[in-house]
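ingest -> fold -> write
write: protein_1
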Amino acid sequence: MLKNYMHKRERHYAMLNNNRVVQPFGWGTEFVSEHANGGDPREALCEHSRHVVANSDEYFAAPEGIEFSLEKRLYPSAASMNAGELKKPVVQTEIPFLSWQSAVKTPSVENNTAIATYFPHENKRAAVVILPHWNAKAGTYFDLAKYFNKVGLSALRLTLPYHEERMPPELERADHLVAPNVGRSLQSIRQSIADTRACVSWLKDQGYEKVGIVGTSIGSCVAFMAFVHDMRIDAAVFNHVSGYMADVVWHGLSTYHVRESFGDNLTLEELREYWLPVSPMAYMDKLAAQPWRPQRYIYTKYDLSFPVDLSIDTMKALRKASIPHSEISLPCGHYTLGEKPWVYLAGYKIIRYLHQHLR
């Protein structure tokens, strides 16, 4: 009975967003190689995948020589709101914003300026990088950041690529982050990881001794990739879990329009191989070989967007690799995790864990 109820709620929330567009399919080899020469895109993407997984430390290296700018800006900004929101009265407040030029350059000029919202605590011992979910609106996770402040932790909430101020004018949704363009999605996730590592670098430059990370949904995937490739991250919480990005997009409720765009151009097995460089399952052995760091994985039993069998498979992979971890399973779904009481329970599990391991 609970399963049926939760699935009904999940479908209801998913369909509230009626601006999903079936975009044209594209191989996008030009987004992953400067020397795309019109050859077989399948072969090019396979070769790219093999090369990245074998050389991931180089591919996901922390950006160097970044010039950061920290200034107070009015929130919410006009650039972060859509036309409907701008028609309503807006109350703005000043908040510290960090900006820099992303190390990964994309064709969208707006997207190349990375932005993060800073919530400092007077005690600069520890801070948490917050990575939102796909299509998160301006201001989401600000409450989480403020709760981190209440327990003595600073927070830095990253605006993901193609979101808010980073969204090019032709988009209503962040469709370039998870797209039916195979190469563009790879570039977008790589950019997300580069921007995340830049956040860690900035926090370290400010004198923070410990840095944690929490990511939700696609933010969880990005957080995992950053965690595996950046030993400066001392503890992590991954909120919604899957080992393969391709399987989430192929089977997930939230990405049905992306799946429709793929059509018959490729199979799930092919997509899984092409997107392996940005899939946690590719780096389990790498994580297992590292000195252990605290890590918590939260998933929901009735998730239709990150289907629960994918989460369970990931937990099995962690155990098979003998990676000690904290595992939390909540009796709700992907969207319903944002409802009471689940949102409070998840928030407690996130804040308590990071506070415990970063203090």
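write: protein_2
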Amino acid sequence: MINDSHPERRCAGVDQLSLRSLVLGVLGACIITASSMYVALRMSALPWPTVFVAVLSMALLKALGRTTLNEINITQTAMSAGAMVAGGLAFTLPGLWITGRWKGPAAFGEHFWTVLWVAIAGVLLGTVLTWFMRRRFVVEEALPYPIGVAAAETITVGDQGGQKSALLFGTMGLAAVFTYLRDGLGWIPAAFSSGWLYSRNFFIGIWVSPMAVGIGYMIGTLYTGVWFLGALLSYLVIIPLGTAAKLFPAVPAAVAFKNTAGIGLMVGTGVGILIRFLLSRLPGFPNKAAKLPSGSAPAGSGGPLRLERLLSFLAFAAAFVLSVVAGIGPLPALLLLLGVWAASAMAATITGQTGINPMEIFAIIILLAIRLLVRLDSASAFLIAAAVAITCGYAGDLLNDYKAGQMLGTSPVAQLIANAAGGLAGAVIGALAMFAVIGQFGGVGADKGLPAGQAFAVSQMVGGIGDPLVFGVALAAGALLYLFRVPVMTLGIGMYLPFEISAVVFLGGLLRLLSDRFRPGAAAGAGNIAASGLLGGEGITGVGIAIYKMLTGG
């Protein structure tokens, strides 16, 4: 257990805030953001970095000495902020490369500032909106926020003997060395596949990636199983058998069909989320929210309301200006501000109830709504989607942190400051990392090694879908299956992504199945820590190699 008898620190007049928590939090946010960008682009998935940052914060502050639970929580709040900024960028803006609007090494010099302004706008909007949502969703409705609860429990249990830290840094180091040997020196193949099978339209193999195994372990057997089912459907049925049976004139037509169907299922999930959210607001609909005892006052609900409103107005005004400077027109930018309010409320509810935050789906919903009202060029459409995704991802992350803070008694004001600092650092690093990784791989797409499935879905909404009938049927099926609690989002991802990625993710899910069966106590503890280390090690090393090659022209 952590010795919590030390006095709380104070910085800039804010209780529990410390200078070292801000410094460590911002530095950690830079690392987590870079790693998350790599993971999101390569895997089309981004698990919450909660366990990773909680153990990392605990290890660093314990090494410095005289720390407290609240200082650890504030530090991990700052560290985790950048991950969702990276996710919002990675799940939307690569669509500009997919559609051919941005290309080549010149993209960095021409568009970096545009991406940065949009990222900062999303951080500002997310910071303000979650501050006002905290009382409703965390305090009054008391939504579960399972990710926040996991963070609080990790910090409370502590790291007796340094075993968690050793496991985290050990697996991180192994993954980093492996990634350098594979991507830096080329001593390890990136994937194993069969030319004989490929020549017969069975495009199957397995990617060699500790990161993918870690992701599969963390998201569990159910989701990886459905994910792999989508891959089997695409690569063992639709493409080879559909082509052989003359259901498709050629392989490209079969590939287009499975991509359109997969994207339709993903977007249909978003429609299902919206339907369930609207139903949950109706009187009499089953609601998991807990009620406050009568006469109880929400912790931290006081404060100078006038100052809060002034700062909120300034943040919204700054976000509006940054959106316009980035290239979004004044009217679409105004509609963006209204849209992110609704989207953030949905993200807060879904994250609080399930621990899942499909930020790119909310981005698609708001983008389509704005396009019904005003005309948008494709670049503006992608930028709007990015701003919404960042805001929603950031909102879910910060509300998880507020939940952990409520359990630990952490000052929400200190958390707000720490999260804003980490988010702004994440905006800068996220923009740099995105250009670096895409530059290293020579573009975006499954053939480049950067499938970016969510960005592909957004590009379909911006540039036009494939077969409208296939898309419509898949969308309806996705919405219906979601309402019956089928994890159809991962089915769509499996249909779209290369089989090689899905296979190794499923391997991680099988390892989780074995762990749950034979060592159930270790599955959610040591297992998740080891998996987090695999993600962090490969992600950080992959981005480091990409940035080095971008700077040296390698």
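write: annotation protein_2
The first strand starts at residue 10 and ends at 11.
The two ends are 47 Å apart (CA to CA).
pipeline exit 0
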